[in-house]
Amino acid sequence: MGTDKALLRFGAGNLLELAIDRVRAVSPKPAIVGAKDRYSPYGNVIEDQFSGCGPLGGIHAALCATQTDLNLVLSVDMPLMTPAFLRWLVQVAESGKQLAVVPDAQGKLQPLCAVYRRAARRVVERALKMGDYKVGRIFPLLPTRYISEGELCAAGFSRDIFRNLNTPADYEAVTAVLAEARGE
Description:
Helices cover 36% and strands 16% of the residues. It starts with 8 loop residues before the first strand and ends with a helix. The model has no long low-confidence stretch (mean pLDDT 93). With 184 residues, it is an alpha/beta fold. α2 (36-39) links the parallel β3 (32-33) and β4 (45-46).
């Protein structure tokens, strides 16, 4: 993207503020995983214990800092995500004993819009210590509940909520879709 996606302007704020608002609909105390000096104006910040390890390092930091069993993880670059889906995802996680509940949508797993139990931390930490930073590789090592795209659609959710912003073209396309939906 060429810039910090979290602070990219989106609507009346930025992508980080939008993600925090979405998560706040599910949890009264969302936390941000990242650099305190950059993100502390937006809320409680947890810094990585394993820096430079990508999203898996962030999931680990969150699971180490949490006081709750179930932990919703949401990337900042999914601006079409809805609070209704996040509530439903947490309800699915509450109904089972799996250590991870991960949607499978748009042809791939969505580990950055998933629920992890605190106990998953041990497997995540082991992967980090072994230098394996791919989030998707932890799921065969954990009791994991995969939510298929068909199940998401049957529950009334569009696969488009997982559309993420990785390029300026993605950003322009999503902002155009939202402007059209508002009648602009």
